[in-house]
Specification:
heterodimer; A: 531 residues; mainly alpha; 15 helices; B: 0% strand; rod-shaped
């Protein structure tokens, strides 16, 4: 980031509207960002509660408390709530708050569409929750027992709750695409004078790539679930072999969305790390342009390797070889990002405040998740690991550190800027350690369970798997409850605390740190000049 | 957003034009997910059966 000449008049701003209208009709990027973050936090607890129920059931062999179909419904909803309800909206919340401040824009390019993007979400969440609740009512049909992948023919046979889920996916997709369009237009058209693309903060770059990915793959998922809807109600047979269709087609459509979705979840957190690590290592980010290149490579390759999720469907040797090589190739640009982070830390004057602890934790644990990903990419090995608890352990090691911990790092890093108060550092560190240790206790044993042959998405298991499941469940309870501490820290910080300075962190760089903490309702009323 | 510098008709037109372009791209992917991808995957599927 280059130096700036600040000429904005921060006194010139309009007061924030009062009452509920401020939130319902908001076109202010900071307010909408706050709404996104609060929504994501709510869904995090909802998804977390379903995960804790899952782990309670798996505490011991035998059916403890959940009907098998209800268990499968919880598995389905846990994934959908966490991915579409928690992680994506949280990343969108960070984007809304930070992108205009980082690029010197007064707001998002299309503020009213920004309002729409958010307010579609509660409607989608209602549909999603209804899909879970409806089977409990008379005539509500069967539980959704497909998992988040919604594979036919099972998803064609499920009761009306599947229709709620399909519409929820449609609404979530509309929200994501609208938000992505807004972010791309903002980043391409609203940058301050002098801020070329290669002077743009890395968080903005990660969101530019993420937004393009969303625009390219979410419509394909929408197409897939629309065909599913037609198969269910309008007599088509896109996925019905008896009518000339092919159920495997849905798997291709789903994973054409589903695999890039992993990078959609990861990249914004990589963007957060690209700010946190330089700030606390007190060094510029190592290899800015190579990071951008790596990101573009990850996005491009990530779009064309989807079928590594489907090795067992019986593809030709040529096809699986292609998908295997392509998948393994992704580890090169991802590795480059990790090495850039390590090189940034190298010989830096590092301090370990909570955001940096999360950043270092991510580098270690995400790398571990990536390595088990390389194992899964290898076709003959994957034939053994497929649909086992090893896969569950793998993707939680990728998505928790890679996406969620990155978001935690971002929240702790920017919380002083948002609230004007420093959070309680001792509590922040305590949260980190409880969170990270319990995460590892939960998911590390699942590797062994998978290697020993325990299948995933199953309510009961053989007694030989008991010990590791007991350990995993105890870890999960601590892990789940630890998020109450996170909530407490946030509430405490909002309510008060040590006053945050403009530049809350000594090593922080970027336009956002030139603004007051908290920033005025309208910021950058005059565009900053980037030299 | 009530800042004259950012309320020029040119910028607004530019923003809206780009937004429609991106929406068109999303629509293209939505529509082609029906015939195009199904055709591609049918070929892959046929090969897999051989």
């Amino acid at each position: 980031m280059s130096t700036t000449t600040l000429s904005h008049d921060e006194a010139h701003h309009h007061d924030a509207p009062k009452g509920w209208k401020r939130w319902l009709f908001s076109t202010n990027h900071k307010d909408i960002g706050t709404l996104y973050l609060l929504f994501a936090l709510t869904m995090l607890f909802l998804g977390g509660a379903s995960a804790m129920l899952i782990r309670m059931e798996l505490f011991m062999p035998g059916i403890q408390m959940l009907d098998p179909d209800l268990y499968n419904n919880l598995v389905t909803n846990h994934a959908l709530i966490m991915i579409f309800g928690a992680v994506m909206p949280a990343a969108a919340g960070l984007a809304n708050w930070m992108i205009p401040m980082m690029i010197g824009a007064p707001d998002m390019a299309l503020p009213r569409m920004n309002n729409l993007s958010f307010w579609v979400l509660p409607a989608a969440a209602t549909m999603l929750i209804l899909s879970f609740v409806v089977p409990f009512f008379p005539g509500g049909g069967t539980q959704i027992n497909t998992g988040w992948t919604l594979y036919p023919p099972l998803s064609v046979q499920v009761g009306m709750s599947m229709d709620f889920l399909i519409f929820a996916v449609h609404l979530l997709g509309i929200s994501s695409v609208l938000a992505s369009i807004n972010i791309i237009v903002t980043l391409l058209n609203m940058r301050a004078p002098g801020m070329s693309l290669f002077k743009m903060p890395m968080f903005c770059w990660t969101w530019l790539v993420t937004a393009f990915l969303l625009i390219l793959v979410v419509p394909v998922l929408a197409g897939g679930v629309t065909m599913l809807l037609f198969d269910r109600h309008f007599g088509t047979s896109f996925f019905d072999a008896a009518g000339g269709g092919d159920p495997v087609l849905f798997q291709h459509l789903f994973w054409f969305f589903g695999h890039p979705e992993v990078y959609i979840l990861l990249l914004p957190s990589i963007g957060v790390l690209s700010h946190v690590i330089p700030a606390f290592a007190r060094k510029p980010l190592f290899g800015y342009k190579s990071m951008v290149g790596a990101m573009l490579a990850v996005a491009t390759i990530g779009m064309v390797v989807w079928a590594h999720h489907q090795y067992t469907i019986g593809m030709s040797l040529g096809a699986v070889t292609y998908f295997m090589i392509g998948t393994i190739l992704i580890s090169i640009p991802v590795g480059l990002m990790i090495f850039n982070f390590i090189a940034t830390m190298w010989r830096g004057a590092m301090t370990f405040e909570t955001p940096m602890l999360f950043a270092v934790g991510i580098v270690l644990m995400f790398t571990f998740g990536g390595l088990s990903g390389v194992m899964l990419a290898v076709v003959p090995a994957d034939m053994q690991y497929h649909d086992s608890m090893f896969v569950v352990a793998h993707f939680h090691y990728v998505l928790m550190p890679g996406a969620v911990f990155g978001l935690f790092a971002g929240v702790f890093y920017w919380l002083p800027k948002w609230t004007g108060h420093m959070y309680d550092e001792k509590l922040g560190k305590l949260f980190f350690w409880i969170n990270v240790i319990s995460f590892n206790i939960t998911f590390f044993p699942q590797h062994f369970l998978g290697l020993a042959g325990m299948p995933r998405r199953i309510v009961d298991y053989n007694m030989i798997f008991t010990e590791f499941n007991v350990v995993s469940s105890i870890g999960a309870m601590v892990f789940g409850l630890s998020h109450l501490l996170f909530l407490y820290i946030i509430i405490k910080t909002i309510r008060g605390g040590k006053k945050a300075e403009k530049r809350a962190w000594e090593g922080a760089k970027g336009l956002e740190w030139e603004l007051d903490s908290p920033p005025a309702f309208h910021t950058w009323t005059v565009a900053p000049q980037i030299k | 957003m009530r800042i004259p510098e950012y309320q020029t008709p040119e910028l607004r037109r530019k923003n809206v034009r780009l937004a429609w372009g991106l929406a068109g791209l999303a629509l293209f992917f939505l529509i082609t997910s029906f015939p195009f991808w199904s055709g591609i995957f049918r070929v892959v599927g046929t090969q897999a059966m051989q």
